[in-house]
Amino acid sequence: MKPLEDVCTHIELQRKYWPNLKALTIRDVAERGRSFWGWSEKEWLDSIKRGGHEKPSVAAAAYLLCRFDSLHELGRYNFLYYGLAIRVFGRKRIRSLFAELEAMLVEWGYRDRTARIYIPRAMCEVLVTNRSPHLEDLTFELLQKVQQRRQKKTSTLYLAAVSKVLAHRKIISAPVMRMQRPRHPNPHLLTGVPEKWVEAAKYWRENARYSARVRGATYYFLLTVGRWLAAKHPTITTPEQWDRSLAVECLTMITNMRCGDFRAQWVGRKPRNYGKPLTPNGKMLNYTALRVFFADLQEWGVIPPRFDPYRSFTPPRSVKALVATTPRVIADDVWAKLLWAGLNVTPEDFASWRNPSGRIHTYYPIEMIRAVTLVWLFAGIRGDEIRRLRVGCVRWQPDNESSVCFLDVPVNKTGTAFTKPVDGVVGQAINAWERVRPAQAKLCDQKTGEMVDFLFLHRMRPLGEFFLNRGLIPRLCRKAGVPQNDLRGRITSHRARSTIATQLFNAKEPMSLFELQEWLGHRMPSSTQRYAKITPTKLMKPYSDAGYFGRNLRAIEVLIDQEKVRNGVGAAEAWKFYDLGHGYCSYDFFDQCPHRMACAKCSFYMPKGSTMAALLEGKNNLLRMRQEIPLSDAELAALDDGVSALESLLSRLADVPTPAGPTPLQLRDTALVQIEAAD
């Protein structure tokens, strides 16, 4: 009993509870027939489970006397770590540590209950596992050990917060990452795929130089090709057996492929596009996947070079022609509404919950949300670049602090870091967030491997990967009253980049192609040309100035005798007179007359000096109008080029009958004159 009494003294257990601990221990000693010094960890767990109100005391005895270290076997939702820590390390020491921890976490943006209860429990687990109450004794390897022995991989949220505290105090180099929700793989994924083909696909996935997402997508498509081989060519099981004829056949299969062909057995609900043809972009990705797969295996010496993958898997022209390079620009009216919504963001737009007193809570601080929103609306950078902006990325010009500032963009997928000018509202929003942003530890930039101060960091965690597309943009669309989908598809983060670049290229004083290339951070001008598309609105003005329609029309003045129209004239009486400059033509279908540009002065012609013309011009009820007459190429040349073209036109019309019947040759006694047409 002496060791148990020493335990009770150390944990400051009240005297009245000592007999309970002794009785529980003696009972289990009698049942097992040996002293507690020889109990296994499983037997100690059974004793703790049956301890009732004395569970923390039994756990303390096991921990102090027998170095018990299997308390995590009781499951995630156990509170014994907290009770064990305050008994073993001292209530006063633990409470002091928790007060300091709570103040730090609340400053970072954690809720009061989370900072006061849940995260301290995770801290107690780490301290108990390390058998030391000092934070300085904790190591990154210890945190990984605690993380890996969690029964559920989704229960690492508060452990990650503990690691952020340690990283902020520079006790460990970097916080541990939260374990993602485990994916349940398709059990039928490798069904029907030749074993050697699977080995080659796995070898490529493990050694390729592409990102994890690209390698994963290529791997799954290679398995689809393996099922096609098993169905159409069962004797071919390895990549080294392929030749050019088989590559061409596979190319045809991809071209005619539909969603769901040669796929593994579906687990759950089938996708909406099941059975539909692949999109042109999807086909191009599949061509590229096979081309890269065989080219890499040949380059690595895994298979002999029996054919050229780059020539054999060349996409058909019919598919390449369907791959559009037109930027998915958001309409001007929709974009204007989104700009208004972004400039007027309120906490109510991003409220995650509301407490009983009516106070609105958002996951991210409203200053941070405003800064992210304005960067997305005005900066024209990629979503990954927004997430990786650094503290101090805004620099102001010394002579102008309100119109334009400079934004330092980090390393991107196509080039190095660069600086671009942006609107002053972006800099003001970022500076407002930096003033209230809590000081937090540096984190590792996965792209460069540097330890940097991320600008958009909350609770020691960078901006979520899907926050822009699933959190910010849907709420802005709801506030602006616009649908999240338009004719070009769903409004995503990258469409803002396309819209801004297109507007800059089509502005009243537009950026040149090379200036826009520098502003977007592109390495090649060909990438910028995908954005530099002239809008139809801008194209309308030079088209109107070109006067294509007006070039083929000429306006001629027409006099209409309203008195004759009201009285109802007969078919043989003229009521409409075309002004030729030197006379009038009373032929009703003047626009169809072949001699309209060089009047032959037939019986429909009325000279201006004649008596009839004088009577006509003296009427008060004349209605003067203008009619556009379409001209042929020869008539245009007669108007534009002068005498030589007119003589050529007259020679071609010499034998063409006039509306009155005679030809110009028969009317040669009267000189021919050209009409005066007004443009």
List the helices and strands and how they pair.
Layout: H1 2-10, H2 18-32, H3 41-49, H4 55-66, H5 80-88, H6 91-108, H7 112-130, H8 140-148, H9 157-168, H10 195-207, H11 212-232, H12 244-255, H13 280-299, H14 309-312, H15 317-320, H16 332-343, E1 353-354, E2 360-361, H17 366-378, H18 383-387, E3 394-397, E4 400-409, E5 418-423, H19 424-436, E6 443-444, E7 451-452, E8 457-458, E9 461-462, H20 467-480, E10 485-486, E11 489-490, H21 493-505, H22 513-520, H23 525-529, H24 536-546, H25 548-551, E12 553-561, H26 562-567, E13 576-579, E14 583-585, E15 598-599, E16 605-607, H27 611-617, E17 622-630, H28 633-641, H29 643-652, E18 673-674
Antiparallel strand pairs: 1-2, 3-4, 4-5, 6-7, 8-9, 10-11, 12-13, 12-17, 13-14, 14-16, 15-18
Helix pairs in contact: 1-4, 3-4, 4-5, 5-6, 5-7, 6-7, 7-9, 10-11, 16-17, 16-20, 17-19, 28-29
Can you walk through the features of this model?
The chain is an alpha+beta fold and 679 residues long. The protein folds into five domains: 2-68, no CATH class; 88-168; 195-320, no CATH class; 332-529, Intergrase catalytic core (hpI Integrase, Chain A); 549-674, no CATH class. It is built from 29 helices and 18 strands. The protein has a five-stranded antiparallel β-sheet with strand order 16-14-13-12-17. A three-stranded antiparallel β-sheet has the order 3-4-5. The longest helix is centred in the N-terminal third of the chain and has 21 residues, at 212-232. The chain starts with a helix and ends in a 5-residue tail after the last strand. The model is unreliable at 671-675 (pLDDT under 50).
